[in-house]
Amino acid sequence: MKIFIDSADVNEIKEAINLGLCDGVTTNPTLIAKTGRKNAEVIAEICGLAGVPVNAETIGISYKEIITEGAELAAIAENVVVKIPMCKDGLRAVAYFAERDIKTTVTLVFNVAQALLAAKAGAAYIAPFVGRLDDISSSGMDMIRELVEVYDNYDYETEIVVASVRSPLHVKEAALAGADAITVPFSLINTLFAHPLTAAGIEKFLRDAGHK
Ligand code: G3P
Protein backbone atom coordinates (compact mmCIF):
# COMPACT_ATOMS: atom_id res chain seq x y z
CA MET A 1 0.00 0.00 0.00
CA LYS A 2 1.36 3.39 -0.96
CA ILE A 3 1.65 6.14 1.62
CA PHE A 4 0.87 9.67 0.47
CA ILE A 5 1.43 12.72 2.66
CA ASP A 6 -1.63 14.90 3.13
CA SER A 7 0.15 18.22 3.52
CA ALA A 8 1.18 21.42 1.77
CA ASP A 9 3.98 22.05 4.27
CA VAL A 10 7.25 21.71 2.38
CA ASN A 11 9.27 20.85 5.49
CA GLU A 12 6.88 18.05 6.46
CA ILE A 13 7.03 16.64 2.95
CA LYS A 14 10.85 16.79 2.93
CA GLU A 15 10.92 14.89 6.22
CA ALA A 16 8.53 12.24 4.89
CA ILE A 17 10.72 11.85 1.79
CA ASN A 18 13.80 11.39 4.02
CA LEU A 19 11.94 8.66 5.91
CA GLY A 20 11.16 6.92 2.63
CA LEU A 21 7.48 7.43 3.32
CA CYS A 22 6.29 9.64 0.52
CA ASP A 23 4.83 7.79 -2.46
CA GLY A 24 2.76 10.84 -3.26
CA VAL A 25 1.41 14.12 -1.89
CA THR A 26 -2.15 15.37 -1.56
CA THR A 27 -3.05 18.99 -0.99
CA ASN A 28 -6.38 20.75 -0.80
CA PRO A 29 -7.52 24.37 -0.47
CA THR A 30 -7.55 24.12 3.35
CA LEU A 31 -3.95 22.85 3.49
CA ILE A 32 -2.76 25.46 0.96
CA ALA A 33 -4.47 28.26 2.95
CA LYS A 34 -2.48 27.19 6.05
CA THR A 35 0.79 27.93 4.21
CA GLY A 36 -0.24 31.54 3.47
CA ARG A 37 1.30 31.10 0.01
CA LYS A 38 -0.08 30.89 -3.51
CA ASN A 39 -1.30 27.48 -4.70
CA ALA A 40 0.85 27.40 -7.88
CA GLU A 41 3.98 28.45 -6.00
CA VAL A 42 3.57 25.76 -3.31
CA ILE A 43 2.73 23.05 -5.85
CA ALA A 44 5.78 23.90 -7.96
CA GLU A 45 8.04 23.64 -4.92
CA ILE A 46 6.55 20.32 -3.79
CA CYS A 47 6.79 18.89 -7.33
CA GLY A 48 10.50 19.68 -7.36
CA LEU A 49 11.18 17.70 -4.17
CA ALA A 50 10.54 14.22 -5.60
CA GLY A 51 9.09 12.72 -8.72
CA VAL A 52 6.01 11.44 -6.95
CA PRO A 53 2.41 12.33 -7.86
CA VAL A 54 1.46 15.69 -6.34
CA ASN A 55 -2.27 16.40 -6.09
CA ALA A 56 -3.22 20.02 -6.73
CA GLU A 57 -6.89 20.88 -6.29
CA THR A 58 -9.04 23.13 -8.44
CA ILE A 59 -11.24 25.70 -6.69
CA GLY A 60 -13.88 26.53 -9.32
CA ILE A 61 -16.84 24.20 -9.66
CA SER A 62 -18.06 24.98 -13.18
CA TYR A 63 -16.75 22.87 -16.07
CA LYS A 64 -15.04 25.88 -17.66
CA GLU A 65 -13.36 26.93 -14.42
CA ILE A 66 -12.16 23.41 -13.66
CA ILE A 67 -10.74 22.94 -17.16
CA THR A 68 -8.94 26.28 -17.07
CA GLU A 69 -7.56 25.87 -13.56
CA GLY A 70 -6.72 22.21 -14.05
CA ALA A 71 -4.76 22.94 -17.23
CA GLU A 72 -2.81 25.65 -15.41
CA LEU A 73 -2.01 23.29 -12.54
CA ALA A 74 -1.03 20.45 -14.90
CA ALA A 75 1.37 22.80 -16.69
CA ILE A 76 3.36 23.36 -13.48
CA ALA A 77 5.11 19.98 -13.62
CA GLU A 78 4.74 16.52 -15.10
CA ASN A 79 3.98 14.96 -11.72
CA VAL A 80 0.96 17.16 -10.99
CA VAL A 81 -2.30 15.26 -10.58
CA VAL A 82 -5.31 17.54 -10.96
CA LYS A 83 -7.61 17.02 -7.99
CA ILE A 84 -11.27 17.74 -8.73
CA PRO A 85 -14.24 17.67 -6.37
CA MET A 86 -16.95 15.10 -7.05
CA CYS A 87 -19.71 16.85 -9.04
CA LYS A 88 -21.22 16.65 -12.54
CA ASP A 89 -19.02 19.32 -14.07
CA GLY A 90 -16.04 17.86 -12.23
CA LEU A 91 -16.53 14.45 -13.84
CA ARG A 92 -16.92 16.02 -17.27
CA ALA A 93 -13.57 17.70 -16.63
CA VAL A 94 -12.05 14.37 -15.54
CA ALA A 95 -13.02 12.89 -18.92
CA TYR A 96 -11.58 15.94 -20.70
CA PHE A 97 -8.24 15.52 -18.92
CA ALA A 98 -8.19 11.72 -19.37
CA GLU A 99 -8.44 12.23 -23.14
CA ARG A 100 -5.35 14.41 -22.89
CA ASP A 101 -3.40 11.99 -20.67
CA ILE A 102 -3.57 14.32 -17.69
CA LYS A 103 -4.08 12.41 -14.45
CA THR A 104 -6.87 13.38 -12.09
CA THR A 105 -8.07 12.52 -8.60
CA VAL A 106 -11.76 12.78 -7.80
CA THR A 107 -11.99 13.98 -4.22
CA LEU A 108 -14.79 14.12 -1.64
CA VAL A 109 -16.03 10.63 -2.50
CA PHE A 110 -18.43 9.17 0.06
CA ASN A 111 -20.09 6.18 -1.57
CA VAL A 112 -19.89 3.46 -4.21
CA ALA A 113 -22.07 5.27 -6.76
CA GLN A 114 -19.74 8.28 -6.78
CA ALA A 115 -16.69 6.02 -7.03
CA LEU A 116 -18.20 4.15 -9.99
CA LEU A 117 -18.90 7.39 -11.85
CA ALA A 118 -15.36 8.65 -11.19
CA ALA A 119 -13.83 5.44 -12.54
CA LYS A 120 -16.04 5.52 -15.63
CA ALA A 121 -15.02 9.14 -16.28
CA GLY A 122 -11.36 8.03 -16.31
CA ALA A 123 -10.03 9.24 -12.95
CA ALA A 124 -6.56 7.91 -12.13
CA TYR A 125 -7.37 8.12 -8.40
CA ILE A 126 -10.29 8.67 -6.07
CA ALA A 127 -10.06 10.09 -2.57
CA PRO A 128 -12.78 8.62 -0.32
CA PHE A 129 -12.93 10.41 3.05
CA VAL A 130 -13.17 7.89 5.89
CA GLY A 131 -12.82 10.18 8.92
CA ARG A 132 -15.63 12.47 7.81
CA LEU A 133 -17.98 9.51 7.38
CA ASP A 134 -17.05 8.24 10.84
CA ASP A 135 -17.86 11.76 12.10
CA ILE A 136 -21.48 11.31 11.07
CA SER A 137 -21.74 7.80 12.55
CA SER A 138 -21.36 6.01 9.24
CA SER A 139 -18.46 3.59 8.78
CA GLY A 140 -15.75 5.02 6.55
CA MET A 141 -14.00 1.68 6.37
CA ASP A 142 -17.14 -0.18 5.28
CA MET A 143 -17.16 2.18 2.31
CA ILE A 144 -13.50 1.36 1.51
CA ARG A 145 -14.18 -2.39 1.60
CA GLU A 146 -17.13 -1.87 -0.79
CA LEU A 147 -15.08 0.30 -3.15
CA VAL A 148 -12.27 -2.28 -3.32
CA GLU A 149 -14.80 -5.02 -4.11
CA VAL A 150 -16.61 -3.01 -6.79
CA TYR A 151 -13.42 -1.86 -8.53
CA ASP A 152 -12.15 -5.47 -8.46
CA ASN A 153 -15.45 -6.72 -9.92
CA TYR A 154 -14.94 -4.61 -13.02
CA ASP A 155 -11.12 -4.40 -13.14
CA TYR A 156 -11.16 -0.61 -12.90
CA GLU A 157 -7.63 0.77 -12.79
CA THR A 158 -8.61 3.84 -10.78
CA GLU A 159 -6.60 3.77 -7.56
CA ILE A 160 -8.26 4.16 -4.19
CA VAL A 161 -6.39 6.68 -2.04
CA VAL A 162 -8.01 6.55 1.39
CA ALA A 163 -8.28 10.11 2.71
CA SER A 164 -9.40 11.87 5.88
CA VAL A 165 -7.25 9.33 7.72
CA ARG A 166 -7.07 10.13 11.41
CA SER A 167 -5.64 7.12 13.26
CA PRO A 168 -3.34 4.09 13.02
CA LEU A 169 -6.53 1.98 13.02
CA HIS A 170 -7.60 3.64 9.78
CA VAL A 171 -4.18 2.76 8.32
CA LYS A 172 -4.47 -0.88 9.39
CA GLU A 173 -8.01 -1.25 8.09
CA ALA A 174 -7.20 0.42 4.76
CA ALA A 175 -4.34 -2.05 4.28
CA LEU A 176 -6.55 -5.02 5.24
CA ALA A 177 -9.20 -3.83 2.79
CA GLY A 178 -6.63 -3.74 -0.01
CA ALA A 179 -6.73 0.01 -0.71
CA ASP A 180 -4.06 1.16 -3.17
CA ALA A 181 -2.90 4.04 -0.96
CA ILE A 182 -3.65 6.12 2.08
CA THR A 183 -2.97 9.79 2.44
CA VAL A 184 -1.98 10.72 5.98
CA PRO A 185 -1.28 13.97 7.81
CA PHE A 186 2.39 14.18 8.77
CA SER A 187 1.53 14.09 12.49
CA LEU A 188 0.11 10.60 12.02
CA ILE A 189 3.36 9.27 10.57
CA ASN A 190 5.07 9.46 13.96
CA THR A 191 2.31 7.52 15.67
CA LEU A 192 2.73 4.71 13.11
CA PHE A 193 6.25 4.01 14.38
CA ALA A 194 5.20 3.78 18.01
CA HIS A 195 4.15 0.90 20.25
CA PRO A 196 4.56 0.92 24.06
CA LEU A 197 6.15 -2.56 23.98
CA THR A 198 8.65 -1.39 21.34
CA ALA A 199 9.62 1.55 23.55
CA ALA A 200 9.89 -0.70 26.63
CA GLY A 201 11.89 -3.28 24.67
CA ILE A 202 14.41 -0.70 23.41
CA GLU A 203 14.71 0.69 26.93
CA LYS A 204 15.50 -2.80 28.34
CA PHE A 205 18.02 -3.62 25.59
CA LEU A 206 19.82 -0.34 26.24
CA ARG A 207 19.88 -0.99 29.99
CA ASP A 208 21.08 -4.59 29.59
CA ALA A 209 23.79 -3.46 27.17
CA GLY A 210 25.03 -0.96 29.78
CA HIS A 211 24.04 2.09 27.74
CA LYS A 212 21.96 3.51 30.59
O1 G3P B 1 -7.27 14.09 2.56
C1 G3P B 1 -8.38 14.80 3.01
C2 G3P B 1 -8.09 15.42 4.29
O2 G3P B 1 -7.27 16.51 4.15
C3 G3P B 1 -9.30 15.76 5.06
O3 G3P B 1 -9.06 15.32 6.31
O4 G3P B 1 -9.38 15.12 8.70
O5 G3P B 1 -10.12 17.21 7.50
O6 G3P B 1 -11.38 15.10 7.23
P1 G3P B 1 -10.04 15.71 7.50
List the topology elements:
Layout: E1 2-6, H1 10-18, E2 24-26, H2 29-35, H3 39-49, E3 54-57, H4 63-74, E4 80-85, H5 88-99, E5 104-109, H6 112-121, E6 125-128, H7 130-135, H8 140-153, E7 159-162, H9 168-177, E8 181-184, H10 186-193, H11 196-208
Parallel strand pairs: 1-2, 1-8, 2-3, 3-4, 4-5, 5-6, 6-7, 7-8
Write a structural description.
- With 212 residues, the protein is α/β, with parallel strands linked by helices.
- The chain has a single domain (2-186), classed as Aldolase class I (TIM Barrel).
- Helix content is 53%, strand content 17%.
- The chain is built from 11 helices and 8 strands.
- The protein has helices spanning 10-18, 29-35, 39-49, 63-74, 88-99, 112-121, 130-135, 140-153, 168-177, 186-193, 196-208; strands spanning 2-6, 24-26, 54-57, 80-85, 104-109, 125-128, 159-162, 181-184.
- It has an 8-stranded parallel beta barrel with strand order 1-2-3-4-5-6-7-8, surrounded by 7 helices.
- Helix 1 (10-18) runs parallel beside helix 3, helix 6 (112-121) packs across helix 8 (140-153) and helix 8 (140-153) runs parallel beside helix 9.
- The chain is globular.
- It starts with a strand and ends with a helix.
- The relative contact order is 0.13.
- The mean pLDDT is 97.
- SN-glycerol-3-phosphate binds next to helix 7.
- Residues 6, 26, 28, 127, 129, 131-132, 163-164, 166, 183 line the site of SN-glycerol-3-phosphate.
